Amino acid sequence: MANHSRQESATIRVGIADKSPLVRAGLRHLFQNDDRFELVTVCNDGKSFLASLDKQPLDVAISGWVIEPGRGKYILDQLRGRTEAPRIIIYTGADDENIPVLAMAHGAAAFVSKREETDYLLDTVASVAAGHMVFPFVDVRRIHLNPLTTLTHREMEVLAAAATGQTTKEIATAQGVTPNTVKFHLRNIYEKLGVSNRSQAIAIYLKS
Q1: Under 8 Å between Cβ of 202 and 162
Q2: Which residues on adjacent β-strands are paired with residue 42?
Q3: Largest pairwise CA distance in the chain
Q4: Are 87 and 132 spatial neighbours (Cβ–Cβ below 8 Å)?
Q5: C-alpha angle with apex 201: 196 to 203, nearest 5 degrees?
Q6: Which end of the chain has fewer beta carbons closer than 10 Å to its terminal beta carbon, N or C?
Q7: Do the beta carbons of residue 129 and residue 58 sit within 8 Å?
Q8: For residue range 140-171, what is the model confidence (pLDDT) as tens digits?
Q9: pLDDT tens-digit profile of 46-73?
């Protein structure tokens, strides 16, 4: 949902998260030379990108899919509960037809292949900032087959964090809750996914 800062801003505030220095440099040049955009932050991993949002709000962010920790879906899942979260465009060269489906299922606003022309990426950012979703053809029925769709936003945040190897205490500290609250969410996750432990839940997350 668009917020007032998006509506009133003269330019579109953009962030970049990608593991490749070459991609980051190329995108930096691209957005710094287009007056429609203000490039706010450039990060090389998901954790530093998420931390930057506390200081520098964005309208739209471009994220790679193959990025630490936990791939692009980690970023998407950690942003689910944020009311001021930027809209995320997954921008990847990974050759897997399932990625657009997964990106949409985890809450992305758009998917752009790195094989597309750069003008297409720029126009997609502008379109997403205006409130549109941009994807290649996706069979949405496949999204509903994803077992993770039964989880709440907070449960997805907890499971995404657990999948990166964070302990219960680390997850609790990062999310500002008690370890018992995290354990409560984990128990609900196990029940909804039909598993009995963290390892089994993470295995489902990594495949979905």
Answers
A1: yes
A2: 16
A3: 53
A4: no
A5: 125
A6: N
A7: no
A8: 777 777 788 888 888 988 998 999 899 999 99
A9: 999 999 998 889 999 999 999 998 789 9
- Record the pTM: 0.77
Three-state helix/strand/coil letters over 104-165:
HHCCCCEEEECCCCHHHHHHHHHHHHCCCCECCCCCCHHHHCCHHHHCCHHHHHHHHHHHCC
Domain boundaries, the chain: 4-141, 146-207
Indicate if 146-207 has the same CATH topology as 4-141. no
CATH number assigned to the domain covering 146-207 = 1.10.10.10
Whether 34 contacts 163, CB under 8 Å: no
Residues sharing a CB contact under 8 Å with residue 4, sequence separation 6 or more, in sequence order: none
Looking at the domain covering 4-141, what would its CATH class be? alpha beta
Report how far apart, in Å, the C-alpha atoms of 6 and of each of 9, 29, 58, 82, 143 are. Answer: 5, 23, 9, 15, 28
